[in-house]
Design brief:
The structure holds 2 protein chains of 2 kinds.
Chain A (H helix, E strand, L loop, with lengths): L3 H23 L2 H7 L18 H20 L3 H18 L6 H15 L8 H5 L10 H21 L3 H5 L4 H4 L10 H4 L2 H23 L4 H18 L6 H8 L8 H7 L15 H19 L8 H4 L14 E10 L5 E4 L7 H7 L3 H15 L2 E10 L5 E2 L6 E3 L16
Antiparallel strand pairs in A: 1-2, 1-3, 3-4, 3-5
Helix pairs in contact in A: 1-3, 1-13, 3-4, 4-5, 7-11, 7-15, 11-12, 12-13
Chain B lengths: L1 H17 L5 H34 L5 H21 L7 H8 L6 H9 L6 H6 L8 H10 L4 H23 L7 H7 L4 H28 L19 H17 L6 H8 L1 H19 L5 H7 L1 H26 L14
Helix pairs in contact in B: 2-3, 2-8, 2-9, 2-11, 3-7, 3-11, 4-8, 7-8, 10-15, 11-13, 12-13, 13-15, 14-15
The chains are: A alpha+beta, B mainly alpha.
Amino acid sequence: MSAASSAVFRIAFGLVALVLIVRFFAHGWIDSLLLDPVHHFKYPGFTWVQALPPPLMYALFAALALTAAAMALGYRQRLSAAFFAVGFAYVELIDRTNYLNHYYWIFLTAVVLAFVPLSGMWSVDSRRGRVTPSRHISEWIVWLLRFQVGMVYLFAGVAKLNSDWLFRAEPLATWLPARSDLWLVGPLLAVPATAFVLSWAGALFDLTIVGWLLNKRTRLPAYLALVGFHSTTWLLFPSIGVFPLVMGVGALIFFEPDWPLRAKARRPQPAQTAQTGSTSKVGVALVALYVVLMIAIPLRHFTLPGDVHWNGDGYLFSWHVMLNEKAGSADFIVTDDNGTSWVVGPPGYLTDRQVAVMSTNPDMIRRTAELIASDLGVSVKADVQLSFNGRRSVQFTDPKVVLAPEATESDHWIAPAPST
Amino acid sequence: MSRVLLVVPALALLLSSCSTGPDQSLVVENIASEGLIPLIETAADEVTALQTAIESGCPGGDLDGIANAWRSAATAYEAVNATAPFGPASMARTTSMVDYQPISPTGIDDLLASDEIVDADYLENRSSSTRRGLGSIEYVLFDIAAECEYAAAAAEVATSATMELRSAWLESFEGAAPFIDAFTADMTSPEALGDVVGAFVETLKEQQLFELGAATGSTSQEANVDAIPEGALGFGSGRYLAELAAIETVLKAGGESGLLALIESRDASVATDIDGLLAEAQDRMSAFSMPLQEVAETTPTQIDAYLEVISELRSLLEADVVSLLDITLGFSDSDGDTG
C-alpha cells in the first residue's frame, strides 16, 4: 500500500503538534496553567508529578516544539514521537484542570507514531539513508491511523445519544444564543429550533462520518462536510482552539493511500494494490491490545453508577467533546475540634480556572476539601450549587457529608442527576 | 434576479425577527455607556466635591457638610469598585489611593506625631495605602481632632486618582466611543460580560465571606466585627447599599437592551430572581438603623439572614448566569474542547 498518505499524516501531525506547543508560548499558558498555580490537581496515581522549575519547563516546551518539527520532517521520527509523547504526557499530568480531549488525542497519536514507522517517504531519515526509503507501507498501519481518527467521531457520537442532547438540545440551546451577535447567522442562532437541528445533525454527523469517509463514492463530499462541520464549530466556538485543525488534517488519512501522489502528479494514477507487510506477533498483539483499550476506555462509564454527564465518573478519555454546560458555585463548611462551624470559599491560592473546573467536578471538590482540611486543621463539607445543561442551579453536593480529612468512599455525597 | 434581490433582505428581516433577546454587543455598549461610565464620572465628581468641602469647610467650619460630602464620595467610589475592577486603569492602584481598607489608625497617629510634612506628595508616594484614602479622612476628621491638612492632602490624592481613572476610561482611546473601546479592547462580548458578572460575584463574595460573614462568625472561626470596614461615621451599611445599587444599575443599564434583559431572554425566572434578591438584599441592609459593627455585635443573626440572600444571589450569578451567558469568570477559556 502506498506510504504517501501516512507520510502526509506524519507531516500534518507534526505541524499540528508544533502549532499546539507554539500556542502555549504565545498565550502564556506555560506560566498561567503550569507554573503560576500554587497547587495542582493531580490525576489518581500521578500525585508524584511535579511542575519543573521555570527554566526547565520552558526548555521542555522548546524541546517539544523541536520534536514536533522533527516528526513533521521525518527526522528520527519514532524517537521524536516517543520524546514528544512522554514530554506532553508529563505536561498534561501536572494538572487535571488542563485536560482536553484533543490534548489526549495528540498524546495517543504520538504514542502510535513512536511505534509505527512512517518516515520511509518524504522524510529526512529516508533522504539521509537512516531508514530505507520506501513508497510502500503495511496496510494495517493505515488502518490503525484511520482507527485513531475514527474513534473520536464514533465515541463523540455515542456520547451524544442522551436525552439532554437529543430532546432538550442542550448544551447548544444554551451556547448558541450567546453567539447571537455573530454577523449574519447570529439571529438564527438565537432561535430554539436551530439548537435542535444542530444537535441532531451533530449526532448524526459524528455517528456516520467514518462510514461516509470509508466509502469511496461518498468520501470526497463527506470530507468536505467534515471541513464545513469543523469550520462551523471553530467559528461558533473560537475557544475550541486547534481541535478543528487536528481533526481536519487527521481525516485525510481516509482517502486512498496514494492520494498525495495523485494530487502531486495532477493526473490519475493506477490504484495500487494492497500489500500486507509482515508484522511480528508481538506487534499484532500490541495493536490489538491498543484497539481494545481504546474501545473499552470510552465505554467504561456505562459500567459505573450514575450519569457520567452529571457526576463526571468515566468522563476522562471518553471523547465527550463539548457535550455539557456546567457552572458551579462552591463553598465549604468547616468545623473545628470545638464544634464551631463556619463557611469558607475555595482556597485563595487556586486560580480562577481551577476554581471554575473544580466547582463542577466531584474528585476536585473532594481534593479541595482535603486541602482546606490540611490548611486549617478542620473537617470539611462541600456546599456546591451546580447549573447543568441550561437548568436552574441545584444542590450538587450533600453539605452534611464530611469529605475531609477522613475519606468518604461512597458516591452518595453527590446528588442524583436531575431527572428533567 | 429581482426575486432573489427581494428574498435576501426578506430572509434577513425574518431572521432578525426570530432573534430573542437583545444584541450582546449592544448590551456591552450599554453597560459601558449607561452603567459604568456614569458611575466612574460620579465618583470623580463626588471625590472632587469632598476635596472642595474639606478645603473650604475645615478647620472650624461645616463638619456636617464635610461628613455628607464624605458619604457621597464613599458611596460613589464603592459603586465603581463593586462593578468596574477592570478596564484601562489599574483599579488596585486607584483603590489604594482612594479607598483602601482597612486603614491603620495607629499608623496615621504615628505619622501625625512625626515631624514629616504630610502633604499630597508624601501620602501618594511615600506613605502606605493604610494611611490615605477616604478611610483616613474619616479617621482624622471624625475620630480624632480635625486634622484638616492631613484630610485635605488625602482628599487631593483621592481626587487625582479618580480623575486619572476617568481619563483612562474617557480619553485614552481615540474614536467615537472611547469608553467602550476601553471596556472591550481585545475582548469579545462574552469576555466583557464575564468581566462584569465576575465583578459582581467578587463583590458579593467579599461581603459574604470576608467582611460581614467574618464579622458574625459565619465565615470565620471567631466573630470579628472589625472585618466590616466602618469608621466614626458608621457608614458600613451605606457602603454595602452602594455596592448593591451599583450592581442593579449596571444590570439594568440599557433597559430592554441591558444585561438583565439579556439574562431574561435566556431564562426569565433567573432574571426575576436576581431582581427580587437584589431588592430584598437592599431592603434588609437599609433596615439596619445603627452602625453595622454594632448590628454584628448585638444581633448577628440579622446580618446572617441578609447574607443568606447574598449567598443565593451570588450562586445565581456564579452558576446560572455564567451558564446562561456561556461566560467564564476571571480567565479566558482557551483551547477548550471540554464541557
